[in-house]
Every structure is written in C-alpha cells, then in structure tokens.
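Section 5: illustrative case.
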C-alpha cells in the first residue's frame, strides 16, 4: 500500500474512532478508572480530561432509595467530585431488596448517613455530604444547594417533579428525573437550560384537586394512601443505570444524552421501550417565556 493511501485510511479510522490511543499496561492495571477510560476513548475523548472534568462536578441526589442507591454508587465510584444526598427517611428491612448499599444492621439509621459511610469506603476521593430534609412544599426546594446537576429519584409528594421542574427552569438548574411505573423503568426528562424542553412542555397530566376542595381531595388522598406501586429490584437497577449513564455523559462532556426532550420507559416484561416527547414548546407555561 502506498504511504499516501495508508495515511488516508489511518486518518479515516482514527477520526471515526475505529482506532483509539492504546492504554499502557501500567495504566490498565494500576489506574482505578482505567476500564472507564477505555469507554471514554470509544467516544473519541481524552480519558484523563473526562476524568478530571468529573472530579470537579457537584451533584445533588434527591431521594436515597432504590434508584438513589444505585445512582450514587455509580457516580461515586466513577470519580464524581462531590455528592450531596437529600432524604429524611430511615432504613427499613423492606428496603433491602433493592437498596443495595444498606445492610440488616443499618435498620433504623438515616439513609443519607449510611450512604455517606458506604461511599466513603468505596472512593475516598469523592466528597460526600448529606441533608436530612423532606420536600413537602415548593418553598422547601429553596433548601437544596445549587449544583452541576440534580438527580430526582424521590417520589413524594405527588407534585414533586412539577415543583422541581418549575424551580429548575427559573433558577437555571440542570436536572434529570428517574423512577418506575410497576414493571417499567423510567428515566428522563433531562432538562438543560436553553437546550431542551421541560417536564411541562408536552404534559398531559392534570393537576390534582386543590386542597380547598376537601371532598374530592380527601377522596383522592384516601385512594393514594391505600395504593402501593410494585417496586422490583431489576426495575430499580435498570432505571438507575440509564439515569447514571446520561448523568455521566452530561457531567463528563461526552456522547449524546438519551433522555433530552423525552421521557423514556423500558418494559422488563419484554424488550420494548416507549417514549413521551417533551420537545421544547414555545408556549409552555413554565419555560416558554422564561428563556
């Protein structure tokens, strides 16, 4: 092969990431993040640059249950610089099926405190802190610190996500929501100021009756208080994994996010996904006139 043809072929393969810079054997065996570095390379990124970027980021995780456990473990062990856990619950035995960082001996302890302990053991380079508070009103959201990203995995009160969405739009705070609906793992939308739609841009969900309408409100509250959504470990893990995948891409500055402008549901009963489009709506009552 002529040198000119070789160079042209090499440049094509390298620029399209079919060829990547090789890790040294010393780095592969001694660098705690080496396997992730190979992943970042597959996106054509400088892995050391991505790792340094992650180390400078601050993330708030609201809700430290099944999804919060998995997401926090992934982010901490991936080298995200600072994690702030927000929850006011204590650990119960029924949590242990899916909240993987807790043990039987932790029953009765605050979830945030145990997460700090366990993740400090796994990565001492990642700073972890906690806020033992509950979000029960819109005003409570002001207690949360600004960060590079908020991850919302709490599921109460009923209006939490619309409240969070409105606050984040008004205060230029990026966030991603993750949860589940019975056997459907859900992640998104991922809101980024000026780049994406928000949770309300194409919402078909109506508001709950006002508390002033006591008869209807009390009836709805009674129904909801006696209903529990199934919580299955693989569903939690799947939702958390996809949420963490988008979070790391956003924080590290590589790849395309899967949950911008949409909410994605993955059914575990069959290999099937569905989406709710949340593309930016110029007439959105929350973000349409504020950006």
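Designed sequence:
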């Amino acid at each position: 092969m002529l040198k000119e043809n070789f160079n042209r072929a090499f440049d094509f393969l390298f620029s399209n990431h079919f060829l990547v810079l090789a890790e040294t054997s010393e780095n592969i065996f001694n660098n705690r993040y080496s396997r992730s570095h190979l992943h970042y390379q597959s996106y054509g990124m400088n892995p050391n640059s991505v790792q340094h970027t992650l180390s400078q980021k601050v993330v708030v995780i609201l809700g430290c249950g099944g999804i919060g456990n998995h997401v926090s473990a992934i982010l901490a062990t991936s080298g995200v610089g600072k994690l702030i856990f927000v929850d006011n619950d204590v650990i119960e035995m029924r949590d242990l099926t899916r909240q993987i960082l807790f043990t039987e001996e932790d029953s009765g302890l605050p979830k945030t405190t145990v997460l700090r302990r366990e993740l400090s053991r796994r990565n001492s380079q990642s700073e972890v802190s906690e806020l033992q508070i509950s979000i029960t009103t819109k005003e409570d959201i002001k207690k949360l610190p600004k960060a590079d990203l908020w991850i919302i995995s709490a599921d109460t009160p009923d209006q939490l996500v619309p409240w969070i969405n409105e606050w984040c739009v008004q205060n230029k705070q990026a966030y991603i929501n993750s949860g589940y609906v019975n056997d459907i793992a859900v992640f998104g939308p991922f809101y980024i100021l000026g780049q994406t739609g928000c949770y309300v841009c194409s919402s078909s969900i109506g508001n709950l009756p006002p508390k002033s309408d006591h008869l209807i409100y009390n009836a709805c509250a009674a129904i909801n208080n006696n209903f529990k959504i199934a919580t299955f470990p693989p569903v939690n893990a799947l939702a958390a994994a996809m949420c963490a995948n988008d979070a790391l891409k956003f924080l590290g500055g590589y790849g395309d996010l899967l949950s911008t402008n949409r909410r994605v549901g993955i059914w575990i009963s069959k290999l099937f996904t569905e989406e709710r489009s949340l593309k930016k709506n110029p007439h959105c009552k929350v973000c349409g006139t504020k950006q």
